[in-house]
Amino acid sequence: MALEPLSLSWLLQLGLAFFLLLFSAAMIFVVRLKPSCGCETCQTFLTSRWALEYNNLCDWYSHLLAKSPTGTIHVHVLGNVITANPENVEHMLKTKFENYPKGKQFSAILGDLLGRGIFNVDGDLWRFQRKMACLELGSVSVRSHAFDIVTSEIESRLVPLLRSSSDFDLQDIFRRFSFDSICRFSFGLDPGCLAPSLPACEFAAAFDLASKLSAERAIATSPLVWKVKRFLNLGSERRLKQAIRSVHELAEGVIRHKREHGGAHGDLLSRFMGTTDDDVFLRDIVISFLLAGRDTVASALTSFFWLLSRNPAVVDAIREESDRVIGGDREETVTFAQLREMHHLQAAVHESMRLFPPVQFDSKFCENDDVLADGTFVSRGTRVTYHPYAMGRMERIWGEAPLQFAPERWLENGVFKHKDPFKYPVFQGGIRVCLGKEMALVEMKAVALSIIRRFDIEVIGSGQAPKFMPGLTASIRGGLPAIVTVREGRF
Hints:
By secondary structure, the chain is of the alpha+beta class. 58% of the residues lie in helices and 9% in strands. β1 (72-75) and β2 (80-83) form a beta hairpin.
């Protein structure tokens, strides 16, 4: 009897799914048992049980990179060169910048989510978006405006919210705060995620899932695995497609609202809307800047308060400095100028990101055969990853006790001093250095100071090292549960 078309389609999908399972199992077997080279590093990588020895895969990479004489390893089975050598980072981000683009491979992994946004493109599209963003973010007056928005969000929402109860997931609070702030600044819209009721944020949930599943593509054994799953609309790729659809709909809603209702015209979205009518391109821009403004700041603040919970002396030093700079009235709001005078706070924030960078590693793809600064040969098409997380743990870079949280390593005679950006590539470096760096630092310092001066924070389970979830930025599995109490005499 002839099969119905629907049955044929179903059998085809079943057959392809079965092939995918066989292929995945074969690849796992090959990766575990058949390394493409016999080098000690590769063998160690393949046969180790890192999950039993380390909290995070990045900690295992840090271990391998610390053992390497050059600070570079070549994981042949993954076709990936990974480095924690500052000279190699400078080589990639500055000296041979044009030879290390994001690459088509990277764009394919994140293309469904980020499209043609600034973090997923090279060449003219990247230059155009960077130029427009630079016009918006480069001036002191714009940074001052951003500071005013952040201060308003702190005083009208964050502080009253923290006073209203005692138990919070600080990671969730910081995500809500940074989402409201970036939307108000970049798009002239206020989503109100940090309202007292802590409303469910559909965009944030969809974005978190899309970020997690997109990141899992990057660590897949073979791109063919996720591409076949996407073709068949199976498993994680099915969920990713649904999450991205929600993200796109909400981003498109931001653009429609802007067109219909106007509002502030000095924001980033208005500037881009004045140059193009391509709504898909505008949608990709919105998503990219939400990624930059929400996730990185929230990640950095979460790690910062985890570290402070283990280092009360640093909290005391920041409080003493704030009393000296701002004055005895603990309820007085810090000014933009005063914030720049707080060197110990600045040092503590930088030290926190040295140990826990919001973006733990970043990859480029080699355009043409090259030799890195440490002599490592890189063939065309190879993925080259530099690893800020591992670099922050390198004794050869930071001296003795690199795992110690020590803000004083950033101070000279009490004054904050910047480090070599290729030694500390938390904000990248060279031509791709983060344009929003100063604004992000201002936001982080303002939030941290407002909480430190007014509240005592007890992080639950601070004795255990954080475990990070897969994602485009670092996020702690299980959040950061904390007990927040008002300091005596503050209100």
